[in-house]
Specification:
The chain is α+β, with helices and mostly antiparallel strands. It is built from four helices and eight strands; from the N terminus they run ααβββββααβββ. It has a single domain, classed as Methylpurine-DNA glycosylase (MPG) (3-methyladenine DNA Glycosylase, Chain A, Roll).
């Protein structure tokens, strides 16, 4: 895999331009490395209602307003961590959700992490035999496989000696890149800023947002 570290300039662009360029790149955290196969872009404050930064800066989303090339980690649904890469210049508040990947190094470590007891049996659970394609298939599973948690929020992914690195890898062929609506968002759902590698088995299934209804 291409070992060159992606520099800060790579991320200093609109998220919907960076996102397809991330496909095929390699994420490394400790003993586990994955090749990205699916990502989702989110725009800056006031422009993208689905973005965490839409209403401005808060303690939770502060990392997204920092320099590009940093890791933004958030907790969702009371059980999952998800990871994003910050884009655009400092103060702009934009990022890319890391949705799915193929584990290319540290498969046994990733499998062990996915098998640990957790609050969500959909993500982990003892005794389950997971096919390799499912180890990092979906944003929460990807975070588990890479060992990403709240303590990694704000890591500089462009630092040569950083704990979390984004390498050049083997960029996806443009002809194989597809785009479509983002998964499970209730606002701006039709914006085609979800990007994936066509026919790759690790890409997660598309799920349209379904509003919750109260029983009569």
């Amino acid at each position: 895999m291409g070992e060159r570290l992606l520099d800060r300039e790579f991320f200093d662009r609109p998220s919907h331009e960076v996102a397809p360029a991330l496909l095929g790149r390699v994420l490394v955290h400790g003993p586990v490395a994955v090749r990205l196969t699916e990502v989702e872009a989110y725009g800056p404050p006031g422009e993208d209602p689905a973005s965490h930064t839409y209403r401005g800066r808060t303690p939770r989303n502060a990392v997204m307003f920092g320099p590009p090339g940093h890791l933004y980690v958030y907790f969702t649904y009371g059980m999952h961590f998800c990871a994003n890469l910050v884009c655009l210049p400092e103060g702009m508040g934009s990022g890319i959700l890391l949705r799915a990947a193929k584990v290319i190094e540290g498969v046994d470590v990733a499998r062990t992490r996915r098998h640990r007891p957790a609050t969500s049996p959909a993500l982990t659970g003892p005794g389950r035999s997971l096919p390799e394609r499912d180890l990092a298939r979906g944003p929460a599973r990807l975070a588990v496989a890479l060992g990403i948690g709240r303590e990694h929020n704000g890591l500089d992914c462009c630092a040569e000696t950083g704990a979390f690195r984004v390498l050049e890898g083997d960029p996806a062929e443009p002809a194989l890149i597809r785009s479509g609506p983002r998964t499970g968002v209730s606002s701006a759902a039709d914006i085609p800023w979800r990007f994936w590698i066509d026919a790759d088995p690790t890409v997660s299934p598309y799920r349209k947002h379904v509003p919750k209804t109260r029983p009569n």
